[in-house]
Amino acid sequence: MIEVKGVHKSYSKIGGGFFKKDKLHVLRGIDFEIEEGQCVGLIGESGSGKSTLSRLILGLEKPNEGTITIEGKPVKSWIKENPGKMTVVFQDYTSSANPKFTIKQVVAEPLIALRKTENLDKVVVELLEKVGLSANLVDRYPHELSGGQLQRVCIARAIATNPKILVLDEAISALDVSIQAQVLDLLKDLKNELDMTYLFIAHDLQAVANLCDEVLFLYQGNIVEKISSDRLAFAQNEYAQRLLNSVIPFSIK
Description:
Blueprint: E1 2-14, E2 21-34, E3 39-43, H1 50-57, E4 65-70, E5 73-74, H2 75-81, E6 86-89, H3 93-96, H4 103-113, H5 120-130, H6 147-159, E7 165-169, H7 177-194, E8 197-202, H8 205-211, E9 214-219, E10 222-228, H9 238-247
Parallel strand pairs: 3-8, 3-9, 6-7, 7-8
Antiparallel strand pairs: 1-2, 1-4, 4-5, 9-10
Helix pairs in contact: 4-5, 4-6, 5-6
InterPro entries: AAA+_ATPase (IPR003593), ABC_transp_ATP-bind (IPR050319), ABC_transporter-like_ATP-bd (IPR003439), ABC_transporter-like_CS (IPR017871)
GO molecular function: ATP binding
Keywords: ATP-binding, Nucleotide-binding, Transport
């Protein structure tokens, strides 16, 4: 489904003398694949390049070197041919939802953009119910919902277009632990029900292990370990072992 091959990404930074330009290398030759219907977790500390990689896969930025293809096609071409088939849920749900929109308008936004407005009221209610929210919320505004409710609204919006690929960029990290567990269960159910392919980006190893089929450890711009979630205990890389040791004992479902 997704193939990332030899991807490098750097940014110009200003420093030293008379505005001397240096390069900040964020990604250094990234290689991995995500198969259709698979959930791949990308884990790394802040500044490791996780969100940069997600922006490249979403087509929001371009790599300096290397290629990213979806079903064998360059990202931009695939997105153009498959509108609404790759969506994203971000960490900050408060800025992800227009505060002037009602919940109905938030969820309906991508459907309206794609001119899929037939039975819109009914579709919005069904989407809210699918993520465990009441239809009574349709006329409320984002500030009237809890964090967990609003992130579910963002998930409802993300699945409104029946996407093939869902990118979750730190989508649960701003939530309370108890709410995180509920959202993880929801994501598992939705993946099975809608047969989506997930890229789950996080810094919480336990969450990644519980949701994902395979785990990629990103450290200083390099993927230093690729391993299936049921073999995490056998990770060889020092960084991966350090993360594992920091959360043991933990349970993997």
